[in-house]
Amino acid sequence: MQTPVLETERLILRAPEPQDFDAWAAFCADPETMRFLGGPTDRIGAWRIMSGMAGGWMSRGFSMFSVVEKATGRWVGRLGPWQPEGWPGTEVGWGLSRDAWGRGYAVEGAAAAVDWAFDVLGWTEVIHNRGGEHAVPGGCDAARLAHPPPGDPAATARSRGRLLGPDAGGLAGAASGLKTGQGSGTFRSSPCRAGRRRRCG
Fold it and tell me: What is the pLDDT of residue 127?
């Protein structure tokens, strides 16, 4: 099966590859990056997680992408569509290495992944789930998804009606997750007809 490669201004989103594993294992061992992703795990656990996400491409035709920083070629996280067995809906999730936090990579990658899920997978809604209580001061990236300024990487998704407006339930709560690379809050994105400025869903 040929898996897609998505490119944004600063990122390459592609299926997991064997050379990602050392960085993936370091990500999985970090208590902060894994705080709301099931907790830290050793290399054996990291291998299972990475293999499960890689296997999603074969079993379902979609899964999390590895996030590669264009400027350096390094693996900085995983992000993308996710719906394992028993999941409550069609999700776009993310997890970024701590040294990639605060750069807007979650917004940039999530906007591309949402567009791909709607255009290619035919999804009509996207959720984002998190577990536990979580708040990070100053989180603003979820608001950028709902209200991207001109030139923002999320603007395409917003202009196409893929993202909810200011009254979207839970969207503000998702801000800290996008800021830090952790799952946070619950938001839903739904397609709207072109040119209609209204809340969707």
Answer: 82
26 to each of 18, 94, 96, 106, how far by Cα in Å? Answer: 14, 16, 11, 19
Predicted local distance difference test score (pLDDT) of residue 61: 93
CB-CB contact of 7 with 13 (8 Å): yes
Using an 8 Å Cβ cutoff, are 169 and 133 in contact? no
pLDDT of residue 128: 72
CATH topology classification for 6-189? Aminopeptidase (3.40.630)
Which residue in the block uniquely carries the two structure tokens 């899964």?
Answer: 63
Give the residue with greater pLDDT, 113 vs 37. Answer: 113
Residue 174 has pLDDT above 90, yes or no: no
The 3-state secondary structure of the chain reads CCCCCEECCCEEEECCCHHHHHHHHHHHHCCCCCCCCCCCCCHHHHHHHHHHHHHHHHHCCCCCEEEEECCCCCEEEEEEEECCCCCCCCEEEEEECHHHCCCCHHHHHHHHHHHHHHHCCCCCCEEECCCCCCCCCCCCHHHHHHCCCCCCCCHHHHHCCCCCCCCCCCCHHHHHHHHHCCCCCCEEECCCCCCCCCCCC
Type of residue found at 161: G
